[in-house]
Amino acid sequence: MTEPKRWEGQAFNQATESENKIHDDSVARKYGFRGGLVPGVTVYAYLVHPAVEAWGLDWLTRGTASVVLQKPVYDGDRVRVEPKLDGPHAYQGEVIDPEGTVCATGLVSLPESAPETPVRRGDPRAPSPDARPEATRDALEELRESGLGSLRITWTGERPYDRYTRDLEDAPALLRPAEGGFANPAFALGLANWILAANVHLGPWIHAQSEVQNHAAIPLGSALVVEGRVVDLFERRGHEFVDLDVDVFLEAGAPVLSTRHRAIYQLR
After folding, report:
1. Helix axes 185-199, 40-62, angle to 10 degrees
2. Model-level pTM greater than 0.85?
3. How many structural domains compose the chain?
4. Who has the most CB within 10 Å: 26, 59, 146, 179?
């Protein structure tokens, strides 16, 4: 089996038009950042890029990864991933910016066998955008009790979420929509962000870390159902955090991804 190799590419903030204004230059600067943050799910895609190149469809169908986001990555930066092998089918990875700062770390692996798969609960749909409560501790505590509404979305392979680097050619052919490729890891994990935003109205907020288990690749045109639940809420150094368990399914019922996902929903 191919060994994961060092990778370098140009960071891409594909979320400049997002409802999350931490990706907007002017808003991010108010919080002390140099500019709009490249999404954490995109930085995660950089971390797992060597796995997709080396292990291909095997990793998309049963691979695992953890990521801890430590420092911001900015649009246009040349970032590199330095995989350090941790056995024949695993590596410790670092996402490093042009100044040599380690921006994210994690463990990426390819288990020998497929994991136990989740089953859809049939959660009701998330509220309409104008019916969402503000993202407060009380609102999220209520949702921890009542459950999150589910999200429906189709993977169309259209910009800006068809890529995690500015040049699509920097991605493996397996992930290029024009070549019949599958959904990229940034889009797939990004669904955990979107189900949170579908249930509460957020201000600027930041993805902090994730533990990911793949169950299947997502073909172009797939209709997807996202279910999630709030599992923890806590404060740390003035930030308010939420932990979610999120499962993504094909509409027919087969699972494609599970994640324990942590975000700062209120910045200090």
Report:
1. 120
2. yes
3. 1
4. 59
